[in-house]
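Lecture 7 notes: from sequence to structure.
We start with the chain below.
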Amino acid sequence: MKTLVLYAHPARKSFNRQVLRKVEEALEERDYEYEVRDLYALGFNPVLSQTDIDSIKFQKTPDDVRVEQELITWADQIILIFPLWWGGMPAILRGYIDRVFSYGFAYRFDEVGSIGLLQGKRAIVLCSTGTSVEEMELTGLASSIRQIMKESILEFCGLEVVAFNFLSAVSSVEEEMREAYFSEIKKVLV
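Predicted structure tokens for the same chain:
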């Protein structure tokens, strides 16, 4: 299975980096072809500009966006690895979605409504948090994040979300729990 990994964390030594390594190990064990896009290391420009908007209108995709869209087209599945910051994804990932998951590539509208153009592809979301899932459920944050990422972005574009995992309280959990997270990650990478 061809897999595109979208990774959004700036620190070289972070729990998210460990998650990325475990994902890579699991993909290699399954002999999957994969590509990692470390958005910070790439220096991906997350700012949707008037030029970007005009390019969509005139069907002249900017080079950096075209490269990412070609990778998404190539992939059978997309894995997103990111931390939850201020109740959402890091700005670089949000900007990636703004620029790359564009009208005419990831979705379009017809007289009936919206049509996701990335149908037939799977998505897996691995989101680390500083707080527990229980606390996030109590405040409604967990359902909000799931709704935004799963329904309003990924499913809207036609992707089938096969797993959405919160890796919670990563700054305070014991090593045993971290290992449980890594085991769970391997299970969702069918």
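Points to note: The helical segments are 15-29, 39-42, 50-57, 63-74, 91-100, 133-139, 141-155, 175-188. The mean pLDDT is 93.
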